[in-house]
Design a protein that fits this description.
638 residues, alpha/beta, 8-stranded mixed sheet, 7-stranded mixed sheet, 18 helices, binds 5'-O-[(S)-ethoxy(hydroxy)phosphoryl]adenosine, ATP-binding, acetate-CoA ligase activity
Length: 638
């Protein structure tokens, strides 16, 4: 069975087969990959424990699928095009042959540094080709990578390293982002003061910022490569992995406590990332594909690295930010590299829209054929701007809905094949069986209905566990509804049966497409010595999608409450990272609580949204006058 669907009829057939005979269906898709040994069982599962196994008995290495198998026919095809932060610096192109060579070299560096199969490796790098190389080098030798987004603080890095007991960190001296230089190594140094498990740090040269290098612990990437070169044999055979061996851990925020390490395994993830990449974007062999995500997030893992490379695609990665040196940068990149497929986020679209059309009107976007959106619901205005200004009304937009836990896209149109409606993720991909659930745990059948979005049946790319805490995985995703994976999203199914994601129904915020847990931010704010208590809610933000609104009870030490405000922001930046900084901090003397002491977030959300006339039932509040005081105080921010 060929991997790529070519028409709507083929989609319907594939979908039908994937539901009626899921094992035959996925076995047919898996035939399109390279296996050292085939599976004996396609699927073994239950959602109770949960226990999910795909392609059991199979042996493979994902890097052979992403690199080696393309070498014979497409060795010179660009695998990675890298566009630097500064447009005056030369861009880089790595062919499949060159990328394989560099991955093998660096895999040997890892081996020289005592990395073994199953070891956890933390990667904290800027968006440079070495990030792809490091990631694939881990996979080459069966080490488990845990990539951390460059915007996270030392404390967040330490928490993640300690949770996974990483033994080695790969970082760089610094990172260029727009006009700023960020001192990555120094942040890692701070983190490592709390980490016992790390005995080696490999440091790539990027910014030439002055950094400390600790004897016995820190080594330079370039020196280590030289050592491998003088050792002679540059090749590094791919480790034979079991289908269900862990490929990577990626931390993501939930509604409670600390971020959890989502675990993805080898075979199912590979098949799903490759299948969905090929189909959603309808990738053709000559196309240049540009995903603007950071590899520190799941979108970068699946749709810059593993999905595109497994399909032999040319994947463009960008080091910088869309507004540097000006708001036309993305369009300059499209014109310069003749990008055919652009996959980006609504927050980026809205921010560029706000700069005005003069940054896009004179750009040559004639190469664009297909567009994609991911990370949050796309509002109609942004959809139309993307469609009209970037796609010139000719490029289909795939609004792709999925999550870190899913490994790949679950609901989306296939570009050029499926119908599209602004704001709709449209229909499930083959293999995905969505269900809308009501408050009582019953499935809502029929159309023109809304409910909590669940998935009824396993798909190959789904998470297997949360690292070191399987019970947390069960509780979070499989305990709310019996025999269902619960997404945490609300969803509407239209009269025609199309899906529209309406946003999170739990205490998870989506700020500029970044997932942020309210509890996490509250914990950080509460660490400030003057803070007594706090409550966080999201509110509509014109560019970020959601902004963070903090209600804080504090004892001010400064006459100037703005000073306390700044101190709180600094505390959050230290503990999590600048991405979690509240947009608004309103100081309050009390929070609306029920008699049992639970904060009524519903009310706080309404106030943050400015909808104070529709607060709903407040009779269960311990002290209803609290609400009036908060409403009064909120006027300052309107
Ligand atoms: C939201 C990102 C509406 C959703 C791949 C989900 C979306 C969360 C869309 C996962 C979309 C992602 N339309 N909402 N097209 N894509 N979301 O784990 O709330 O960073 O649960 O994965 O983003 O975010 P995550």
């Amino acid at each position: 069975m060929s991997l790529q669907i070519k028409s709507f009829e083929e989609y319907q057939d594939a979908y039908k087969k994937s539901v009626e005979q899921p094992e035959e269906f996925w076995a047919g898709i898996a035939e399109n990959f390279f296996w050292k040994r085939k599976w004996h069982t396609v699927l073994n599962w239950n959602f109770k424990e949960p226990n999910i196994k795909w392609f059991e008995g199979a042996k493979l290495n994902i890097t052979e699928n992403c690199l080696d198998r393309h070498i014979y026919q497409n060795g010179d095809k660009p695998a990675i095009i890298w566009e630097p932060n500064d447009p005056s610096e030369a861009h880089r192109v790595l062919s499949y042959k060159q990328l394989l060579h560099k991955v093998e070299q660096f895999a040997n560096v890892l081996k020289n540094n005592n990395v073994k199969k199953g070891d956890r490796i933390c990667i904290y790098l800027p968006m440079v080709p070495e990030l792809v190389i490091a990631t694939l080098a881990c996979a080459r030798i069966g080490a488990i990578h845990s990539v951390i987004f460059g915007g996270f603080s030392a404390q967040s890095i330490a928490d993640r390293i300690n949770d996974a007991k990483c033994k080695l960190v790969i970082t760089s001296d610094g990172s260029f982002r727009g006009s700023k230089t960020i001192e990555l190594k120094s942040i890692v140094d701070d983190a490592l003061m709390q980490c016992q498990s790390v005995d080696r740090v490999i440091v790539l040269t990027r910014t030439r910022t002055a950094i400390s290098m600790l004897k016995g612990r820190d080594v330079w990437w370039e020196d280590e490569i030289k050592k491998v070169e003088t050792q002679g044999n540059p090749a590094c055979p791919a480790e034979e992995m079991d289908a269900e061996d862990t490929l990577f851990i990626l931390y993501t925020s939930g509604s409670t406590g600390k971020p959890k390490g989502v675990v993805h395994t080898t075979a199912g993830y590979m098949v799903y990332a490759g299948y969905t990449f090929s189909n959603v974007f309808q990738y053709q062999p000559d196309e240049v594909y540009f995903c603007t995500a950071d590899i520190g997030w799941i979108t970068g893992h699946s749709y810059i690295v593993y999905g595109p490379l497994s399909q032999g695609a040319t994947s463009l990665m960008f080091e910088g930010v869309p507004t540097y040196p000006d708001a036309g940068r993305m369009w300059d990149i499209v014109a310069k590299h003749k990008v055919n497929i652009l996959y980006t986020a609504p927050t980026a679209i809205r921010s560029l829209m706000a700069f005005g059309d003069e940054y896009v009107d004179n750009k040559d976007l004639s190469s664009i054929r297909k567009l994609g959106s991911v990370g949050e619901p796309i509002n109609e205005e942004a959809w139309h701007w993307f469609n009209d200004k970037i796609g010139k009304g000719k490029a289909p937009i795939a609004d792709t809905w999925w999550q870190t836990e899913n490994g790949g896209i679950l609901i989306a149109p296939m570009a050029g094949i499926s119908p599209t409606i602004p704001g709709y993720a449209m229909s499930p991909l083959p293999g995905v069986q969505p269900a809308l659930m009501d408050e009582n745990g019953k499935e809502i059948e029929g159309n023109d209905v809304s409910g909590n979005l669940c998935i009824k049946f396993p798909w190959p790319g789904m998470l297997r566990t949360t690292y070191g805490d399987h019970e947390r995985c069960r509780q979070t995703y499989f305990a709310t509804y019996e025999d269902m994976y619960f997404t945490g999203d609300g969803c509407y199914r239209s009269p025609e049966g199309y899906y529209r994601i309406t946003g999170r129904v739990d205490d998870v915020l989506n700020v500029s497409g970044h997932r942020i847990g309210t509890a996490e931010v509250e914990n950080a704010i509460n660490m400030h010595s003057d803070v007594v208590e706090s409550a966080i809610v999201g509110y509509p933000h014109p560019v970020k999608g959601q902004g963070i609104y903090a209600y804080v009870i504090a004892n001010h030490h400064h006459d100037d409450i703005n000073q306390t405000r700044q101190d709180i922001l600094q505390t959050v930046t230290r503990l999590i990272g600048a991405i979690a900084k509240p947009d608004i901090i309103q100081f309050v003397t009390d929070l609306p609580k029920t008699r049992s002491g639970k904060i009524m977030r519903r009310i706080l959300r309404k106030i943050a949204e400015g909808e104070t006339s529709s607060l709903g039932d407040t009779s269960t509040l311990l002290d209803p006058t609290v609400v009036e005081a908060i409403i009064e105080g909120s006027k300052e921010f309107k």
